[in-house]
Write a structure and sequence with these properties.
The complex is a heterodimer. Chain A is mainly alpha-helical. Chain A is 75% helix and 0% strand. Chain B is an all-alpha fold. Chain B has a single domain (52-276), classed as MetI-like fold (Orthogonal Bundle). In chain B, a hairpin with a 5-residue loop joins strand 1 and strand 2 (130-132). Classes of the chains: A mainly alpha, B mainly alpha. At the A-B interface, helix 1, helix 3, helix 4, helix 5 and helix 8 of A face helix 1, helix 3, helix 4, helix 5 and helix 6 of B.
Chain lengths: 304, 277
């Protein structure tokens, strides 16, 4: 995903009614065009997912999402999101604190670098980890060298056949990469707008650094942080391209939910594919609902 | 002075290097293991050239279609009241929230020869089989790229349109401009930076897209093989060097796009604050 279109956006509070406007037929035409476009590209596909998922009845649906392969893919997806979201959250808070509360040279370069993963194709994101950790990559060269650096570690890894690519660690790393900027991108502009006077006042009054963060900063950035986490989680659970490159698609072992959907689809088990897909579509709807709710909460806070 | 500067900046730089910068450096390392003629012949091989043309051309067309309809959707959401408006507003972000694999199989089935939409658009291919005009075709890729690029224009234009000063429009119309002239001469120029940013974001997103395209388009070399699919197929054949060379081309394009988008956003923000002032 590319930057900015998802940044925290406060809904407009209805201003005075406009005295200028379009004739009724133009209004109706524009509303009609917009609704047709939105129906065609958003509403019909959404209805289609759920209709297809239940095409063979509820029993088939429950059976499909309860299969061992499906269950293991759900666990793997939860695991990847469960590791990458908190890590990127800590990173986002640290980066926002450093960038918003201090002045230093090269800040704009740092901001651009944080955005990088958004503009890299998911397939390329997966590829870079293959080049680092794959059998022909840096790690492979190190493990197969005659006299590797850190020989005991290399031996231990070789003996335990520890793999990153075509295994779970690679999936987690690829997920971290593609969701890297989400929390930071929400928090940096928010904390920059809030400035540093409140924190400085807390310090003058004798609060420690941690107290300042927990009692002053965190309540101020709460909604922005939650917003970032929601978007980060949605992407983490849904990532396909990057994970497809590093996973090796071993059923029951390295298939996440999106990869399991692909496997079912490639087996011509379309109803099964849509059954698992409907879970992710539900997650997407939940994400949109929460996102709208957080925007309202934040607008209510700003109104006070 | 607030505490924690060294700790937070240190961790930021460490984590950024570990997750993003060093792995990205591996692309340059791997690409440098190819000789220049090898590198050049890989990135200019016919299938690669065809994939660039396809990817850039269709991404651009999809961004243009989204420009027109995205502007209409943003306009309608900001200016008019109608039933279900809030739901539509929330749904605009669906392509961000819906995993690309789900979007991929949904569009592929919806537009297939038996799908709800595809069944009305069929033709008979050279083997006498009835096929949907969207399956394994450029049109199918186009549909997928329109889907994933849809939110960008709406979401960049919407806040600008909301903050637009109504007095400017009133002034223009009291000076005798008709509604179309007000839109064309007053509103549209003020929306220009946001529209361009939205087009650039939507285009950049489409360039790298994989998941939503692969199911509807397949990856027929020279025909429906977009660049990310080409990289994937090279990787599946364990041609890491060739995959890396093409990935490097894509990386350089995305760096340039990122810089261009930053400049555009800076322009949009400046324009926006000027209007508010």
């Amino acid at each position: 995903m590319t930057p900015a279109a998802t940044t925290f956006h406060v809904p407009h509070q209805g201003g005075p009614r406009r005295t200028t406007g379009e004739p009724p037929w133009v209004r109706r035409l524009l509303i009609g065009v917009a609704l047709t476009f939105v129906s065609l590209f958003l509403i019909i596909p959404l209805i289609f997912v759920f209709t297809q998922a239940f095409a063979k009845g509820i029993e088939f649906y429950l059976q499909t999402i309860n299969e061992p392969y499906a269950r293991s893919s759900i666990w793997l997806t939860l695991l990847a999101a469960g590791i990458s979201v908190p890590l990127n959250c800590v990173f986002g808070v640290c980066a926002a604190w450093a960038i918003a509360k201090f002045d230093f040279y090269g800040k704009n370069v740092l901001l651009t670098l944080i955005d990088l993963p958004f503009s890299v194709s998911p397939v390329v994101a997966g590829l870079i980890y293959v080049l680092v950790f794959g059998a022909q990559g840096w790690m492979g060269l190190w493990l197969n060298a005659d006299h590797p650096a850190f020989p005991s570690l290399a031996n231990w890894l070789n003996e335990h056949n520890f793999k990153i690519i075509f295994a779970v660690p690679g999936i987690v790393l690829a997920t971290i990469f593609v969701t890297f900027p989400f929390v930071a991108r929400e928090l940096i502009p928010l904390m920059q707008a809030q400035g540093r006077t409140e924190e400085e006042a807390a310090r003058v009054l004798g609060a420690s650094g941690w107290q300042t963060f927990w009692r002053v900063t965190l309540p101020n950035i709460k909604w922005g942080l939650i917003y970032g986490v929601i978007l980060c989680n949605a992407r983490a659970m849904g990532e396909f391209g990057a994970v497809a490159v590093v996973s090796g698609r071993i059923r029951g072992q390295t298939n996440t939910m999106p990869l399991h959907i692909e496997a079912l689809y490639d087996d011509y088990n379309f109803t099964g594919a849509f059954a698992v897909a409907s879970l992710l579509a539900l997650l997407a709807l939940l994400t949109l609902g929460l996102k709208t709710w957080v925007e309202h909460q934040n607008a209510a806070v700003l109104d006070k | 002075m607030l505490p924690g500067f060294k700790l937070t900046l240190g961790f930021t730089l460490f984590y950024l290097s570990l997750i993003v910068l060093i792995p990205l450096g591996a692309v340059f390392w791997k690409a440098s293991s190819l000789t220049w003629p090898e590198f050049w012949s890989t990135i200019t091989m016919p299938t690669a050239m065809a994939s660039y043309r396809l990817t850039f051309g269709l991404s651009f067309c999809a961004a243009l279609l989204n420009l027109v309809f995205g502007l209409v959707v943003a306009w309608v959401l900001v200016r008019y009241d109608f039933f279900g408006k809030k739901i539509i507003d929330a749904l605009v972000d669906l392509p961000f929230a819906l995993p690309t694999a789900v979007a991929g199989i949904t569009l592929a089935s919806l537009y297939s020869k038996n799908g709800w939409i595809g069944r009305y658009f069929t033709h008979t291919d050279e083997f006498g089989q009835v096929q949907s005009i969207f399956s394994s075709s450029r049109l199918g890729i186009f549909i997928a790229l329109v889907f994933i690029g849809l939110p960008f224009i709406v979401r960049t234009v919407q806040p600008i349109l909301e903050d637009l000063d109504a007095e400017l429009e009133e002034a223009a119309s009291s000076l005798g401009a008709n509604r179309w002239q007000v839109f064309y001469r007053v509103i549209l120029p003020m929306l220009m930076p946001a529209l361009l940013t939205g087009v650039a974001l939507s285009f950049a997103r489409a360039l790298g897209e994989y998941g939503s395209v692969i199911f509807i388009a397949g990856g027929i070399p020279m025909k429906t093989q977009i660049t990310p699919v080409l990289i994937m197929q090279e990787l599946d054949m364990f041609e890491d060097g060739r995959a890396t060379a093409i990935a490097l081309v894509m990386l350089i394009v995305s760096f340039v796009m990122l810089l261009g988008i930053n400049v555009l956003q800076w322009w949009t923000n400046r324009y926006n604050t000027n209007n508010l002032a």
